[in-house]
Every structure is written in structure tokens, then in C-alpha cells.
Specification:
Shape: globular
Helix content: under 10%
CATH topology of the largest domain: Jelly Rolls
Mean pLDDT: 87
CATH architecture of the largest domain: Sandwich
Radius of gyration: 23 Å
Number of domains: 2
Number of helices: 1
Oligomer: single chain
Number of strands: 31
Largest sheet: 8 strands, antiparallel
Strand content: over 45%
Low-confidence stretches: 2-33, 444-451
């Protein structure tokens, strides 16, 4: 969920970001080739905690109820209860049920459960069927057992969203990390043909040191490895804040900045069914894959989908100002309506491993319907700049080539392009085009020539 600490300032930020600017991070399905842990042995995941919901009622030794309303910092409109009308066991499933009825100042009731146990790392499995209708907001997510470990407040402490869903967007679920100071959220989306309310689906999160992996029905759809945590005293060491104990939450919210106001007239199901919750710990070695420039073949392109054959799979796009990315004729196109407000307000990037004491060469073609500056960069842990430069794209295609040597190694560094309010930009509607991307490791000893 987008925050569960009741802070008026956070509520205002949520409103601005989620309603006004409508930022959306698009993440395509990610292959395990991007993982830091390519040799995990699936037989070494050991079950350490579960609830199969086989009892007659909710097991309060495993779960605690949240009681109350007030919006929870998200402008939500439900009052959470421990009533058996809102949370109960039916046919071996936990059911969270949203009801249109008054309680206190709220016009709806529902339920939210938090696990009494907490964990650091692990594999989290859920089988669930989701409700359907405008304003319904089921979620499976995690918060720190002790928010004071890092920063003492959200989002510095971190938040892990395993599954979120808008009842009005019935074919799409989300997985998100919240962190940073200021607030940063990175979201991946998974779509199906049909509706998540029609049947049960499997949702899995694997949380490893320095890496999260999200799955739906056995399909890996995103990997995240890049985040940071900082407060007024400075920046905490990576992988903070995601190296502490977190507990689980299951809830069904009604209304809020994310799903919008409820419309009971189009509700087709108000019940969030959870068949089971299972938590596994890994019994093997969790040392990340070793890597060095010697594992990268000189003059071989390190980028995925560098020619945009049919789409921009492998690349992540983000915009807080309405820019639209698309692919046509093996060209990535960004339709930009405003460059405001920030340099990073429109961007795209790809994660790639880079190593210190190594020289890389990145090249690409670009043009713009109006001449404008664009910043290219490579960012490591905590968004540390490992390389950056600004060039001017003109209405004619031009080839750009840059050599750089990172000062530190970084698994999953970002090769990114800022298309926002770069110094000197005109705030006019325009389109920018890119193609022919290459990123190669240069073996200086063998004097490779790059073309």
C-alpha cells in the first residue's frame, strides 16, 4: 500500500503524486539472467511459517486485527473491524469482506490482518482470488517490525508491496518497493487475459539480500535491486532499509488516492479470498554471484533489446508529467508534452552490471523534433553518479558515443536517459527518438575498434 502511517504531509504527497501527476513506472517481464542469485537451489527453500486457514476462525496466535478508520494516510473510506462479517474462514480460505455500512465516520467496513511473526528475507507464497469493483483495494504487503531501525518514519523505513490491485483494473496487479528520503516508489505491473476475480492465482515474492523477485502464477515479472535509505543523519549502507525484519499484512481497503472513490453499483465481488500463506527460508548459501569484467566479453553488446524490434522489453520507462513511450520501426519514441518540473520527470533506463577499473563504451542514435538537451548517465547504489553527460538532440539523426570507467563496481547499475527539465530545455510539446543502442566492455589491451 502507498503508506500506512497516518501523516497529513504524506497524504498530501500521495494526492499530488497519484492523482495529479499520475506517475507510472512500466516494467516488462524480467529474465533470471538479471538476478544476483542465478544458482539458487529450489529444494533448499524450507517452510518456516504458514497458515492454511483450516480452522473455524482466524488464528489470533498468528494474526492481529487492526481496528479503526480515519483514512490511514491514503484517504481510505473503510473502518476496519474484527467482526466475523468482515473476516472469516470459508471452505479453507480466509475471506476479507468489504461491506457498505456506517461505522463511526466511515461508510464502509472491512478487515486488515497483520502477522504476529516477522522475517528478514525469504520466499512468501499466497494463493488468492480478488474482488472486483471501483474503489476496492486488496493488498498483500509488509512493513518493518521496528520502524526506528532506519529513520523512525515512513518511507525511510521501507515498505514491500507483494501484491496490490485496483478493483476497477481487473486484469492488472502491482508489486512495489517504497523507500528513500524524499519518497521513491518503483512499481512493476503484471497483466492477464481476463480478470483476477474470476479464479485463484499464485502470488510469490522472493526477498534476497540486495534483490526482490515478483511472480504471478509462476511467471517472474520483475526484479528490483536498486534502492536506498537516508535521513537527516546521512545515508544508511545498502541494502538498507531492506535488511531488517518485516511482518505481513493482508487487507481490503475501500477508496483512497490509489483506487479512487468507491462505486458500489459496479461491485461484482466484495470478497478477498486467501487460500494460504506460506513463508520459506533459504537453507543454502546466499552469496551473490561473483562478477568481474573478465566475465564480460569485449565488444559484445551488454544491453537487452537494444534494437527495439517489437517493444521496449528490458527497458524501464517512467514519467510524472504524462509523457508516452512507444516503439515503431525499431525505434523508441517518447512523446513529451511538458519537460516540467524536474530533470528526471521523464526518463528511461536499463539495469546492467558494471565494474571498476574497466572502460565501457555506450553508443546510440537520437533525434528530436525540436533541438533540446538530454542527459545520459550511469547510476549505482543510492543513485550515486558513476558517469553522466549532456548532449543536444537535433531534428536530424546523430550518433553519440561515450567512454566511461566506473569508480566502483555495481550489480544492476542504471544506464539512464533524462528527458525532463534538463538545463536549457524548451517547455514545448515534442517527440524524441532513439535507436541502435550498444554498451560494450572495451579490452584496451587488445585495442578493439567499436563501430
Amino acid at each position: 500500500m502507498h503508506t500506512r502511517f497516518t501523516r497529513a504531509l504524506v497524504a498530501v504527497i500521495c494526492c499530488i503524486v497519484l492523482v495529479a501527476s499520475c506517475a507510472r513506472l512500466e516494467v516488462f517481464a524480467t529474465s533470471t539472467s538479471n538476478t544476483k542469485y542465478s544458482n539458487l537451489d529450489s529444494s533448499k527453500w524450507n517452510l518456516v511459517w504458514s497458515d492454511e486457514f483450516s480452522e473455524d476462525s482466524v488464528d489470533t496466535n498468528k494474526w492481529s486485527f487492526t481496528i479503526g478508520g480515519g483514512g490511514f494516510g491514503n484517504n481510505e473510506q473503510q473502518y476496519y473491524t474484527d467482526s466475523t462479517e468482515n473476516a472469516y474462514i470459508e471452505n479453507g480460505c480466509l475471506v476479507l469482506n468489504a461491506i457498505q455500512e456506517s461505522n463511526g465516520e466511515e461508510n464502509y467496513t472491512s478487515a486488515k490482518l497483520s502477522s504476529t511473526s516477522s522475517w528478514t528475507y525469504g520466499r512468501y507464497e499466497f494463493r488468492a482470488k480478488l474482488p472486483g469493483g471501483t474503489g476496492l483495494w486488496p493488498a498483500i504487503w509488509m512493513l518493518p517490525k521496528d520502524i526506528n531501525v532506519y529513520g523512525g518514519e515512513w518511507p525511510i523505513c521501507g515498505e514491500i508491496d507483494i501484491m496490490e490491485y485496483m478493483g476497477s483494473d481487473r486484469d492488472t496487479v502491482l508489486g512495489t518497493l517504497h523507500y528513500g528520503n524524499p519518497w521513491v516508489y518503483n512499481t512493476g505491473y503484471y497483466d492477464i487475459n481476463g480478470s483476477f476475480e474470476d479464479d485463484f492465482h499464485d502470488f510469490v515474492l522472493e526477498w534476497l539480500p540486495g534483490e526482490f523477485r515478483w511472480y504471478v502464477d509462476g511467471n517472474l515479472y520483475q526484479i528490483q535491486q536498486d534502492w536506498y535509505s537516508a535521513d537527516s543523519s546521512g545515508t544508511y549502507s545498502y541494502p538498507a532499509p531492506f535488511d531488517q525484519e518485516f511482518y505481513l499484512m493482508l487487507n481490503l481497503a475501500v477508496g483512497g488516492f490509489f483506487p479512487g472513490d468507491p462505486n458500489p453499483a459496479d461491485w461484482t465481488s466484495t470478497k478477498f479470498y486467501i487460500d494460504y500463506v506460506r513463508v520459506y527460508e533459504y537453507g543454502g548459501d546466499l552469496t551473490p554471484d561473483s562478477g568481474s569484467s573478465s566475465t564480460q566479453t569485449p565488444n559484445v553488446n551488454l544491453l537487452q533489446n537494444s534494437d527495439f524490434t517489437t517493444d521496449y522489453a528490458g527497458w524501464t520507462t517512467w514519467s510524472e508529467n504524462g509523457a508516452v513511450f512507444s516503439v515503431a520501426d525499431s525505434t523508441l519514441k517518447a512523446d513529451i508534452y511538458t519537460t516540467l518540473p524536474n530533470t528526471w520527470s521523464t526518463q528511461f533506463y536499463q539495469n546492467v552490471d558494471v565494474y571498476s577499473s574497466t572502460t565501457y563504451r555506450v553508443s546510440f542514435r537520437a533525434k528530436s523534433s525540436v533541438s533540446r538537451p538530454i542527459t545520459i548517465g550511469v547510476e549505482g547504489v543510492n543513485n550515486a553518479a558513476l558517469f553522466n553527460s549532456t548532449f543536444t538532440a537535433t531534428p536530424e539523426w546523430q550518433m553519440y558515443t561515450y567512454d566511461f570507467s566506473p569508480s566502483v563496481s555495481c550489480s544492476g547499475a542504471k544506464l539512464l536517459f533524462f528527458l525532463g527539465n534538463v538545463d536549457g530545455s524548451q517547455n514545448v510539446e515534442h517527440t524524441v527518438y532513439f535507436d541502435a543502442y550498444k554498451l560494450v566492455y572495451l579490452d584496451r589491451k587488445r585495442e578493439y575498434i567499436f563501430r
